[in-house]
Design goal:
By secondary structure, this protein is an alpha+beta fold. Helices cover 55% and strands 8% of the residues.
Length: 357
């Protein structure tokens, strides 16, 4: 199909070129080869002067270099705009002089051959409107090009940072395993660093919740069942989590779980609206000034409780989790230690996160 389209297009261009050659020979009284003789711009100038006398008064009849040819095409472009041609349809002077826009020039001449009997100057208001439209179009193209270049740089720099984060995560895992082995050989225990961030998911509704736990749940933005948030662990938050422990599931998420939550359940809170995080551009636009440009940067800040943890956490809308596959066990009213779902389950929260995604 593609080859057929190409053949049809080539045959149409060839036919158009032949028609333009006949029309030029009839108009100028001499034979002109299309598109070989069009790159100098003199043929175009002569045609315009024939159709409307005095259109282009001074032009280089025998240009010696590309710049002289481009000057001819500049005069042709300004004349065509006055006749009501859209500037977007007119090739740039340098491309026309270098022979890169031969097909476009042939099409312009074909359009002129149709209008040759009534080639009049367009109203000034219409010409101004065309120029404004072209300026706006060029500005949009420039903005799109700059945006594409920015996104390309972001992708490259993001991949470099992500590789650095992965090296750190891997080194830490290997060090923990090594220290566990060394401690076991020595007959001791290895206690890793205390976690700095917790994942808190609400399990129960408003019925029977006393005022103080209800207030803390509102403070943590846990307003509905299965709402979940990240919480920085310090003395104040630990005391608050103890108060709401019967109504929530608490645990310490892994890097893998944090990434899965952001990718599958991540929504941004922008102007009190819940916006899905579908591209890194959204993160870069609102958190770029804090050094957070993509999902990997957010995972790093949340898992390490970095300098921008508060901004990242505020940027995120509370996660809306599903009911866990397989249920809550005996009862979600009981503590996790008793076979229920409420309370602190430490690292086993990762299993619950996988069930609720």
């Amino acid at each position: 199909m593609t080859l057929k389209r190409k053949e049809v297009r080539e045959s149409e261009q060839k036919k158009t070129g032949e028609d333009v050659e006949k029309w030029l020979e009839k108009t100028l009284g001499r034979k002109v080869k299309v598109p070989e003789d069009l790159s100098s711009g003199t043929v175009f100038c002569e045609v315009l002067n024939k159709l409307a006398k005095g259109t282009i008064e001074k032009y280089d009849a025998s240009p010696k270099n590309v710049f002289a040819k481009a000057e001819n095409f500049k005069k042709v472009s300004s004349a065509l705009v006055k006749f009501g041609m859209t500037p977007l349809d007119i090739p740039s002077p340098m491309d026309a002089a270098n022979g890169k826009s031969n097909a476009q020039i042939v099409n312009l001449l074909a359009r002129l051959s149709v209008r040759s009997t009534s080639l009049k100057a367009a109203p000034e208001k219409y010409v101004k409107m065309l120029k404004k439209k072209t300026t706006r179009h060029n500005r949009q193209n420039r903005f799109i090009k700059e945006r594409q270049e920015t996104l390309k740089k972001m992708r490259i720099l993001g991949a470099i940072r992500a590789a650095g984060y992965e090296r750190v995560y891997k080194r830490e895992r290997e060090n923990n395993i090594k220290k566990h082995i060394e401690a076991r050989k020595a007959g001791n225990f290895f206690i890793p660093n205390e976690p700095r961030v917790a994942f808190v998911m609400r399990l129960r509704g408003i019925n029977g919740v006393p005022p103080k736990p209800k207030k803390i749940l509102q403070l943590f933005r846990l307003r509905q069942i299965h709402n979940a948030v990240f919480v920085r662990l310090n003395k104040a938050t630990l005391n608050m989590l103890k108060v709401i422990e019967p109504y929530v599931a608490i645990g310490y998420p892994s890097v893998r779980s944090i990434r899965a939550l952001l990718l599958k359940r991540g929504y941004a809170s922008l102007r009190r609206q819940r916006i899905p995080i579908t591209t890194n551009e959204l993160i870069h636009r609102h958190l770029g000034r804090y050094g957070v440009h993509n999902v990997d940067d957010m995972v790093w800040q949340i898992s390490r409780v970095g300098k921008s943890f508060t901004q990242c956490n505020r940027f995120l809308w509370p996660f809306k989790m599903n009911s866990p596959r397989g249920g809550y066990g005996k009862s979600k009213l009981r503590h996790f230690v008793e076979g229920g779902a409420a309370g602190n389950r430490m690292g086993m929260i990762n299993k619950l996160i996988r069930q609720c995604l």
